[in-house]
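Q: What would this complex look like in 3D?
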Amino acid sequence: MLKKIVLTGAAGALGSALREPLSRMCERLVSVDLKGAPAALAANETWTVADCAEMEQVAPVLEDADIVVHFVGIPDERPFEELLRPNFLSSYVIWEAAHRAGCRRIVYASSVHAVGMHETNAGIDTDAPHRPDTFYGLSKCFAEDLARLYWEKRGLEAVCLRIFSATEQPQTPRALGTWLSRGDLVHMVERAVDTPTTGFCVVYGVSNNDRAPVSNAKVAFLGYRPKDNAEVFAQDILAKAHTPDPQNLAQMRLGGPFATVPLGESGVAGMAKLVKGS
Amino acid sequence: MLKKIVLTGAAGALGSALREPLSRMCERLVSVDLKGAPAALAANETWTVADCAEMEQVAPVLEDADIVVHFVGIPDERPFEELLRPNFLSSYVIWEAAHRAGCRRIVYASSVHAVGMHETNAGIDTDAPHRPDTFYGLSKCFAEDLARLYWEKRGLEAVCLRIFSATEQPQTPRALGTWLSRGDLVHMVERAVDTPTTGFCVVYGVSNNDRAPVSNAKVAFLGYRPKDNAEVFAQDILAKAHTPDPQNLAQMRLGGPFATVPLGESGVAGMAKLVKGS
Amino acid sequence: MLKKIVLTGAAGALGSALREPLSRMCERLVSVDLKGAPAALAANETWTVADCAEMEQVAPVLEDADIVVHFVGIPDERPFEELLRPNFLSSYVIWEAAHRAGCRRIVYASSVHAVGMHETNAGIDTDAPHRPDTFYGLSKCFAEDLARLYWEKRGLEAVCLRIFSATEQPQTPRALGTWLSRGDLVHMVERAVDTPTTGFCVVYGVSNNDRAPVSNAKVAFLGYRPKDNAEVFAQDILAKAHTPDPQNLAQMRLGGPFATVPLGESGVAGMAKLVKGS
Amino acid sequence: MLKKIVLTGAAGALGSALREPLSRMCERLVSVDLKGAPAALAANETWTVADCAEMEQVAPVLEDADIVVHFVGIPDERPFEELLRPNFLSSYVIWEAAHRAGCRRIVYASSVHAVGMHETNAGIDTDAPHRPDTFYGLSKCFAEDLARLYWEKRGLEAVCLRIFSATEQPQTPRALGTWLSRGDLVHMVERAVDTPTTGFCVVYGVSNNDRAPVSNAKVAFLGYRPKDNAEVFAQDILAKAHTPDPQNLAQMRLGGPFATVPLGESGVAGMAKLVKGS
Amino acid sequence: MLKKIVLTGAAGALGSALREPLSRMCERLVSVDLKGAPAALAANETWTVADCAEMEQVAPVLEDADIVVHFVGIPDERPFEELLRPNFLSSYVIWEAAHRAGCRRIVYASSVHAVGMHETNAGIDTDAPHRPDTFYGLSKCFAEDLARLYWEKRGLEAVCLRIFSATEQPQTPRALGTWLSRGDLVHMVERAVDTPTTGFCVVYGVSNNDRAPVSNAKVAFLGYRPKDNAEVFAQDILAKAHTPDPQNLAQMRLGGPFATVPLGESGVAGMAKLVKGS
Amino acid sequence: MLKKIVLTGAAGALGSALREPLSRMCERLVSVDLKGAPAALAANETWTVADCAEMEQVAPVLEDADIVVHFVGIPDERPFEELLRPNFLSSYVIWEAAHRAGCRRIVYASSVHAVGMHETNAGIDTDAPHRPDTFYGLSKCFAEDLARLYWEKRGLEAVCLRIFSATEQPQTPRALGTWLSRGDLVHMVERAVDTPTTGFCVVYGVSNNDRAPVSNAKVAFLGYRPKDNAEVFAQDILAKAHTPDPQNLAQMRLGGPFATVPLGESGVAGMAKLVKGS
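A: Here is my prediction, written as structure tokens for the whole assembly.
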């Protein structure tokens, strides 16, 4: 059993879902966030308020950690300047601090938006080149390249999870392919943690959807075998879907609305509009 | 729900099997064939006798259609001159008429014979180049290239179904890999119709056979997940199979007997002979 | 030395340039065209007026021929119906007649427009899939697939020359990359004829331009080593070039103006407009 | 039903497991080994003591055989000189004798160690180049190339099974990915025998493990669909696993301990040490 | 002729070499650097002192510019914090300012160090994935991904020059392959500027060295045809070369000494040591 | 300058041509062959009679050698048993002895026949898989895999030269593509020796022939740039060439006559017959 796991972004929508499962995989779980602690903690969980872009705040937290599960960051498109600290610099600080602390691995919340400009019908796998759709996606490209650098130069492992649509339920036609259920997210993180050695690798975070548009064949060694399938929601979603428009990149690229949102403007808002059918 | 679907070749073996399922996916189904209407039609189905190689006959039928499911054509090898109208020209007419009518997509009955000269043991996927085995296969290559042209120049979508052995039951050792059950054919056409946007793509029409020799990994976004498996027939078929002969291209290429049939002569007859064990 | 070569389209711009060089490679050159004979013929040249889409007219011409150099066809975009006979059917007739006559090889004037929708900056090679930009390009795709079929089923060899901009001089910025000089055209045809065995293959017809956008590395065995370089015209051409516009596919795809011309309308006229700077 | 199958290495750990299943696939099974016959034979089984590196001993055994299942060989790393006869020369003798006897196919016990230096996280498929990790692996490369030669020059088919960890149960973290259960081994051999035509091909011998690191997608035509999954042992194995060390090639390459064992020294002993946690 | 080119980093070693050639390609050249103007300027050259990481300083400079040649940045490895402004943020500011100013293209001084961890003997081309060898290389990866983002979302073109060893003369065995002469650097920048449309692309900046380890085949459309060849220095360099050591990544990876330099420490110093033979 | 080079097969046709050039690259050249010394030796050359398949004879010769240029072996097809010692075992002995002696690199005379079954018109590069055409070719596959093993496990470098038609002059149509002049052979060996570090790599030994069918693009780092061109012999050779026959694998595969010669029979004799036009 692992001695210590650090989870950053522990108060976020996804981070919250990971606290309990991670707490069962180690002797001590340290949850980190800018926000304060929630009402209930796991028995072996400690909560630390820290800004992950600040080395002095991060360094002590990572001492003796085996693995960092790095989920901090604004989960949406913003002007570059607003993403600089929380998404870009925090990644640098986490990797550098993890190296100094002798951590073994970082499990990173990357995103489909690192490759969001690829055609949905191209069937890319984990070898596809970076094609970010937003500054947000660019921050994920940056962290993935950083991860590869630390692995190749310093032997710090990294599993980059290119998370797709991690919502409670799929809500759009796109999500019939891109949905990542909570259960499968947890399963993916567990495998990213418990696989004995990983080196540097990238894995797509999608559920076992009939319409999942990407392939994890080249990282099968991780043993990520999702169970949920958005198809059970297909009839409802397709019945009330927006008009199909193949000239609209938001419907043709992996990034969905992020592929067309102006740089710096919220893509999540664009997604929300789609859900409402507008 | 779609307003109108047009099904061509509605009286054919495969077209017949698609009428009922398609009628449930739209307000109006228009079935087209050179032959007259069958005894029973679906409640929302209209039957039109028309020659799909004639623009004047096709144009009025496609008015207001959302999607054309194009299954017209002689399903066998013939002299080029005999295939010219029903297989080559009808495809041109359908695409051109669909464009003029503002249709959104054509679902096309392509065939394994567009790539029939590929080695069965090569494990090709949907990116493999055209290697037709017959004039029949050549007509499918022509229509696929036409489909890509209309997509790239005019935005008309196309899903090309490379149908393998769409028989009631598998009957030859080859069919243990290449069988496409009626149920899976219907499922494939449903997905080709209900996927909101597809652009131009190609998908192999094989069931979930243990021995299916090709991969649909690159068009996973379509959500085609076949259910049937020819393996349940394996023991019977292998027990009475012809002598294996790896020097016989009919046993080594995806096209089966079409890979060796002289150009212009019936490949289906060749298949029938195989079934009888001769 | 070859006994007999048949050259179709002998009165065309490119065909005319090939008569003399081909006449030196064989005992008898038979030049074929819909037009009548020019004033002067080579000593061993015969001129035949024939419609290559008519088997009865073609069959006697091909008797005892070793190699057919097939350059017939309208060299521009037209409505499909207008291209059907001269570009599609003539190819079928030539291949079928060549097979019946026991010819060894067809050297075919294919075109960049068979792959004209590929990005110029993608650096494709001869393995790139068909992406026609026009009905004209589609007719080239058809003939290439036909050629492969006759090779694989009947052992008739084919060298498909994907000719780019075969003009006296390069005239547009695009032609700095795509120019094929007369000398290099002749050299390419000579190699396509004198290479002892070729099977089926495709070669790009571009000169040794600094900016040639495609690679013939995979058909190096043909020994096509062009000598001319459009770069000597670069200064003049770039000085008076149209405004660069990377949003204009005519400037970004291999097919140039054919990539944007409406299907059925002349692409050559579009090129001419470009030359005039409009 | 096949007339005669010859199984070499019949007294070995894997050979023993194949006798009964193979006996059900043919009229006569001839089991061959250097060791004498076991107590019980199948009804249609004959046992022959022979040295497979000696043509005079092998030739009579292979008379009239349809298929040879060639499992002879030292299943571990040894000095080259010790492997020369049992692993290298025996393969030559078997192939040559099979050719002379007119056999149709050889099913060969190749090994992961033919590609053991590939990174586990690279997700290779059956097209990956040879990267042997030991002399043992080199003997498998030799036999695979020999197999391809006999197929291409003499039409003798071969199915090369790259067997991974064929133990009763998985015992190491590596085996969570590489385990091949007895049941799946038998199933794989059955398919390698009953597939009517195979030409030359290579298939990975791994069970349906969640963490199986390689892909058989390109030989799907064989119909090898393993059933067992090492994941049921994961909790136990991971609980007592050795310390992960990504700088240790034994944990990062497909060959496992063979990737680091000195050439000529037992890799199985290295594996055993791992199991004990040392 | 171009109206206005902006050259950043104009006082640097490479920037200085580009001022005169660029001044001949446009009506106005604006040279930018943190340092003050040199003694002599070209007739149509203006010098601006500005910090490229500051939008307010950059924005006015880029007004009405057609093309920005962006060579600003520390040309060596440094701690991440020291590279953040000059190498990372300046790139963001330049791209954003160029977009706001309506510039057409950015020609960017990227570096081999974006892919410096690739094996020298792997023969990679311009499609190889990012494998940075340093924070310096990471800053180039960042800018390349940024460039692709601005191209795909905003239509701003970019030519990323992966410059290798741009010294007066090659000085190490590695440089026999990686040398980029001043003349070829200028030629490469000229082509990156004068090519009418480029979209987003990457080109390797190496001379026509016999031993150039990478391929520009996929960006041949740019017409970059280097003339100089480090081989004329080979005899001298090899005579006094350090001891070959294939276990030393500095001798086996494209990045040379950067592949082994500790992150944050000067790689140029490492190169200098090599030159001295230590 | 290198201290000591050992050249095996020094009395052979190719070995003889290498003695003088190699003697200039080192302080001591030791030439080894089963045959006795020629009349004249280079000033720094020693001649040793030894059987390279015997460790006791080889070991003392390799002491203190930096590089072994291994050209021993029967240069033709023979029964496997006849090739076993001179071609297979000698390679093992040389690699093992070189390892024990601490040599840095082996330059090996591999052959096109390791990949001789590939189609000539496929344009393969150095990544193509092994497809031997003879036992002779199989011995080259064996040594290449052995070379890779010693590199990956023991750090012994290897440059495998896949020599094509190394004759004084090209004599057949095939040789117009496959000729390797003496001058280019020497140049290739010089580069294989003087390149500071090589790891394991493969390079095709063909001259700068117009019709050279394979690509060395992926090993450009070696700096092998051949000068001679068989095309100067083309007119003569083609004038008296045998009848082209694309159904004859000897004319369609890289291995030429070796592709059709029965296993174990001389392919050189087959080539000689071709030269005589029979």
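A: To summarize the key features: The beta strands of chain B are 2-8, 26-33, 45-49, 67-70, 105-111, 157-163, 200-205. The interface with chain C takes residues 80, 92, 96, 117, 127, 129-135, 137-138, 141-142, 145-146, 148-149, 152-154, 262-263 of chain B (CB under 8 Å).
Q: Very helpful, thank you.
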